[in-house]
Amino acid sequence: MTVTWDDEVDDVLAADLTAALGYRTPAGGVVVQSVAPIGLRDREAGTIGFTTSLGFSKKLERIERDPRVAMAFHAREHGRSDSTSYVLVQGRARVVAQPSEEQRERVRTQATAYLGPPREGWFWDRWLQQYYVVRVPVDIEVDRVVTWSGLNCAGSPRVDGEALPMGEPDAQSSPKKGTRPRLNVDRAARRLRGTDHTLIGYAGVDGRPVVLPVDVAAVTESGLELTGAPALPAGGRRAGLLGHSYRPQLIGLETRQYTGWLQVSPEGRSIYAPHTEAGYKAPANKTLLLLLNGALAKRGVRTANKAQKAG
């Protein structure tokens, strides 16, 4: 059955400059990344979307292996809406690896409207080939839309589509290398606190990613103590943590992305032990940002090609 949504939710989906994507990992965890939805949605068909480059192949490979994803529309700055709603969309993703010319034109039009006109010319056409030319849409068939009236997700949400499952997800088995932090916790806390938004992602009862806002309240020997309005599920589990900030047209942004272990006590105390870290800080200069994006996309394509030959 096609899942649809009301005008209030559609306003948020159309307006937000960025969203937090949660997707599954082979080990049963969730990675959270910031993406640009650029208003891609079809209310009648019950789909939303975002775009990415084939140069970032690891994300696409995981989505193709397990299409269960979530997108959290959690931030209003530099967007087109003054809504206070937090909208979590859960569904099944499909990577359009070979988009039609009509699909490419739609992406170009939407990207220009939200992110500004692309750079063109002899140098930029070559430098950004892997970033622009092999940029593909990802369509998400919506299964559920969960909407809180406030961006802090306090109170009970409204649900469109499939009902929320009862209970909490089962605790997961500990990693072979243990659950304790593998990174400098003080540095992770400092970096996350330096960003405007922090979100955690984990697998829900039905396996779909859940992405919620949190704050880094304290630093302990066991990891980062997190607080937030929705109660996180008790027990231990693999989880992803994202901290990010951004400026108009995404020119000037910072992202700090972690995978690790979330432990929630029966009393509700949440401790996150970071195990891996990725991210970067881009200057508020479009030329430098495009140089960085082009380099990252080229490196991703080279890595993907090597992996394909090795396989």
How would you sum up this structure, described in words?
The chain has 311 residues and is an alpha+beta fold. It has one domain: Electron Transport, Fmn-binding Protein, Chain A (Pnp Oxidase, Chain A). Helices cover 25% and strands 37% of the residues. It has 7 helices and 15 strands. The chain has helices at residues 7-15, 57-65, 101-115, 122-127, 129-133, 185-193, 286-310; strands spanning 19-24, 30-35, 41-42, 47-53, 68-73, 86-95, 135-148, 158-161, 197-203, 209-213, 215-220, 223-227, 235-246, 253-264, 270-282. Strands 1, 2, 3, 4, 5, 6, 7 and 8 form an 8-stranded antiparallel β-sheet that branches. Strands 10-9-13-14-15-12-11 form a 7-stranded antiparallel β-sheet. It is globular, with a radius of gyration of 19 Å. The N and C termini lie far apart (39 Å). The relative contact order is 0.18.
What's this model, at a glance?
The chain is of the alpha+beta class and 311 residues long.
Number of strands: 15
> How would a textbook summarize the main sheet?
8 strands, antiparallel
The name of the CATH architecture is Roll
CATH superfamily: Electron Transport, Fmn-binding Protein, Chain A
What is the number of domains? 1
- In CATH, the topology is named Pnp Oxidase, Chain A
User: Could you say which structural class the secondary elements and strand pairing correspond to?
Assistant: alpha+beta
Q: Which CATH class applies here?
A: Mainly Beta
Specify the overall morphology.
globular
Strand content: 35-45%
Q: What is the chain-wise order of helices and strands?
A: HEEEEHEEHHHEEHEEEEEEEH
Relative helix content: 25-40%
Tell me, rounded to a whole number, the average pLDDT: 91
Unreliable spans: none
Number of helices: 7
Distance between the termini: 39 Å
Please tell me how large the radius of gyration is: 19 Å
